[in-house]
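Protocol step 6 of 9: fold each sequence in the batch and record its structure tokens directly after the sequence line. For illustration, a two-sequence batch is reproduced in full.

Sequence one:
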Amino acid sequence: MPNTADTGSDAPIDVTPLLDDPYPAYAALREAGPVHRITAADGNPAWLVTRYDDVRSGLADPRLSLDKRHAAPGGYQGFSLPPALDANLLNMDPPDHTRIRRLVAKAFTPRRVEALRAPTRKTADALLDAMAERGRADLIADYAGPLPIAVICDLLGIPHRDRRDFLAWSDALITPDPSRPELMKEAIGAMQEFYTGLIAAKRAEPGDDLLSDLIAVRDDPAPGEGAGAEEGSERLSADELTSLAFLLLFAGYENTVHLIGNAVLTLLDHPDQLRQLQRDPAELPAAVEEFLRYDGPGPLSIRRFPTEDLEIGGVRIAAGETVLLAIASANRDPERFPDPATFDRGRDRSGHLGLGHGIHYCLGAPLARMETVIALEALLDRFPGLRLDVPRGDVRHRRALRARGLISLPVAF
């Protein structure tokens, strides 16, 4: 990527290198300046923030709003969802964000996550059994993808028969085909219909699952409220409930499949560290933190909109403009992490931003960590001779700014 010394100018930089080989491109941008003008996926201009201190501060700055109502007129277009899927935590500021996150936290308990540990290992072992019969596999399609789908669907109480459809819908949203925009629209419509029907079924017949608990939060008056409690009380609106189910399922799948896939590829690129973890799997929880720093699933934070004119890294940004905080760049900033392009499980990785920072820190972080540790532990135990089944140069990541994940990962054992 060419040097962009005119940081803060109105001329957007070319983001193609960020799609094709992001880490060298981010390094060049950090060197050139802390904030750069780019063209976002919706075709509108945005500001890209690249250095650790600025990104970390931005993630916790209340003046950087997630609420799209703060976007400048005629600017941000973004990802269009119907209201029944759009009233989620990724579009909210306090007090609504605080209210909903508190309600979800009551249902999304450490006890419930811990209860998924044994079923997660059982699912991992079953997937590995199927792979072992063939001697080779696509680790994304056969393992890293099906495992988090099974876990999040078990958490929410989603029937097995619906999981294949969800995978197809998710792929249409994660990597849309620009030549067939109707596929994304169809996937969104199918998801809305699915969640509406699922919530109705759970309301009629509740189960011991997170979605049933969230429906109870929606339906039951809080202490001291009458049947006519106003919207905005300590309950969920109908759209908030549907949107929350959508977010938990979609984010619970997308982030974890990419994290597991990236982690396995990183270990295949570092066979000495792979062997060390095979000898001492108790080190896996610490290794996951370095995976999140080194090659995490979320290169960019969710877009933000300044509620007032402000300055980031010496660059003046007007209220309502789109700001993108480059987590992938911050996690490779040498001012915070020495020799950042080296995968080093022994480094001080405290303060990495792989799961966010501030009030929007990933709600499902304990679940993602648990799934990744179990996925890697089971895989490394079962297949000590795990190796790539294609030349390293044939392994491809999805071309997307907002997600860092593999298209496929052919392995043999």
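Sequence two, same batch, same settings:
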Amino acid sequence: MENFEPQLAVDRAPAIWIGRNDGTGEQHLRWHQHVNRQPAGTPDGRKPAALLGFASDAGVLRNEGRVGAARGPQALRAALGSLAIHEPRPLVDAGDIEVLGDELESGQERLAQSVSALLAGKMLPVVLGGGHETAYGSFTGLFEHFRDETGTRLGILNLDAHFDLRSAPRRSSGTPFLDIAWDLQAEGRDFNYAVVGISKPSNTPVLFERARSLGVRYLLDEQCTAGKLPAVLGFVEDFLAGIDKLYLTIDLDVLPASVAPGVSAPAGFGVPLEVIHGICAMLAGSGKLALVDVVELNPGLDIDGRTARTAARLVNTLLGV
């Protein structure tokens, strides 16, 4: 796509996209033919979506999880490549930020800089993780972009089995939202955080108490069965009513292990795909979505590419293409 020149701190150039080819006409297009291409007219005027990889295992390793999420961005792009385009919007691949070894903090700084630059370029950043340490860099970029707009209420909706509110000496995939809460407190700003899909056995009582003390709203996975979709959507709508700009972060371990086996911590119960998809479909039309990331895709553990395909479907729905 032309005129795409935000100042990004990426380490790897945009990927070469491949996929099924049924022809080159507008009615034949798939993601791999559409990314970085200006479609013939974008009648609905939607913001371009920019894919930005965050190839990191450092946070998962610090959190004593199963490493491999650093390969997530490439696997998710590969799963997106052959999906059909029905409602064209500009799609850009902005490349990857690569965290080498334990150099997490510097990688998060580059991620924040890049997210802020994409937002300044009037794009919708879609960050492809990486472990959930991605979240700290993602949100920091969003906050920096809106720092001077003190009246703009920022909110975080996390689709996740875990609160990720752990306290630790260094940042990890288990700490991002407590780190964010501390940063916002230091700035005198509100911490608007909600989680859908919390697994009670996977979060200690101290984490539930910390969530309570921080005013975190949440639904347990047992409250998110398919038959309870209207109530779940009502919960999300209530949260949206109190914010202006939404950061949606999807930890793929929120899904049942049968649907998402390729994650750092597979779910023993999980939230059905139709519920997670329903939330994404609603948010796509909310007008408040400012930033998305999808994390914890671990291709080396992904049976038949199930997790990558599921993640691709969710991204496709969020972007409305």
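Proceed to step 7 once all outputs are recorded. Observation for sequence two: The chain has a mean pLDDT of 94.
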